[in-house]
Specification:
Blueprint (H helix, E strand, L loop, with lengths): L2 H9 L3 H4 L3 E5 L2 E4 H11 L9 H27 L6 H30 L4 H10 L5 E2 L2 E9 L2 H9 L5 H15 L10 E6 L5 H7 L11 E3 L2 E11 L2 E2 L2 H31 L4
Antiparallel strand pairs: 1-2, 3-8, 4-5, 4-7, 6-7
Length: about 270
């Protein structure tokens, strides 16, 4: 089977084959699903999931082709003596030295970080002195149905003269059917958000509502919104226990920076730098 056909067939394998992880074998070397996933993440700088779904399969096929090509070239390089050549050995030595330094620096930094300690007393003092940092704002969890005209919004309100569970279920169904906003397929769910995150007219209305109720049409630059308030949480101060680990990490990082700066001054003083 030609390699191009082999790759295409691999992309159409059943889930039982995919679960075995090996997608294709080149001269005895397996290329796995994990290899492809890792290459995709590197190629997209960790944002492969943001690639449009219709393009993901093509990207996977291209990456698999590249990995196969790399194995073919490497196999031929071994057969033709590239690995024993002077040029290869010189370049390989440079890479080894570079990697050795990078790993040594990483481990050295980790050891320095591990030496840094933050006491409970220090954490509590930071919490006491900076309570303003640890305050959750008022927030709501809301849904909306977005339509283009007020007539459409008024018509929908006639179908929403319900209460309780029935109102919520009907609202979700209509949002999926009628809303032109991106949250429509999710039943109009906007998730939770704090004051000021939405446009003013929407923000003012939603924070004035009672849980389990809907609004009259709200006009914004996007159209007309009917809002359903699912939940509301008042502003509150987070407890020390809730933010303790965050404070410890912040203080540890600050101490680490100070320690490294002092250590670098000492190392520079002892070193021969021309």
């Amino acid at each position: 089977m030609k390699i191009s056909k082999k790759i295409i067939s691999v992309m159409l394998l059943t889930t039982s084959i995919l679960s075995a992880q090996t997608l294709v074998s080149v001269n005895g070397t397996d290329i796995t699903q994990s290899d492809v996933d890792s290459a995709l993440m590197n190629a997209t700088q960790g944002r492969f999931n943001q690639v449009p779904p219709e393009k993901q399969a093509e990207f996977r096929r291209q990456v698999l082709e590249q990995l196969v090509a790399k194995e073919l070239i490497y196999s031929d390089a071994k057969k033709t003596g590239v690995l024993s050549s002077r040029d290869f050995k010189a370049e390989y030595k440079k890479v080894q030295e570079k990697v050795k330094k990078e790993i040594a620096v990483q481990i050295w930094q980790k050891k320095q970080m591990d030496k840094v300690k933050v006491s409970e007393k220090e954490s509590k003092k930071y919490y006491k002195d900076n309570k303003g940092e640890f305050k959750e704002q008022d927030s709501v969890h809301a849904r909306h149905i977005l339509v283009k005209t007020k007539e459409e919004a008024d018509s929908l309100l006639k179908d929403l003269k319900l209460k309780g569970k029935a109102l919520k279920e009907k609202f979700i169904a209509l949002a999926k059917e009628k809303s032109v906003g991106p949250s429509g397929p999710k039943g109009g769910d906007l998730g939770s958000f704090a004051k000021g995150q939405m446009v003013p007219a929407f923000n003012d209305k939603v924070f004035s509502m009672k849980v389990g109720t809907i609004s009259q049409p709200v006009k914004t630059q996007f159209g007309y919104h009917i809002i359903y308030l699912e939940d509301k949480k008042a502003a509150k101060n987070l407890s020390f226990v809730e933010v303790k680990s965050f404070i410890e990490q912040r203080l540890k990082l600050e101490k680490f920076k100070t320690t490294i700066a002092d250590t670098m001054k000492k190392l520079q003083a002892k070193a021969t730098i021309k």
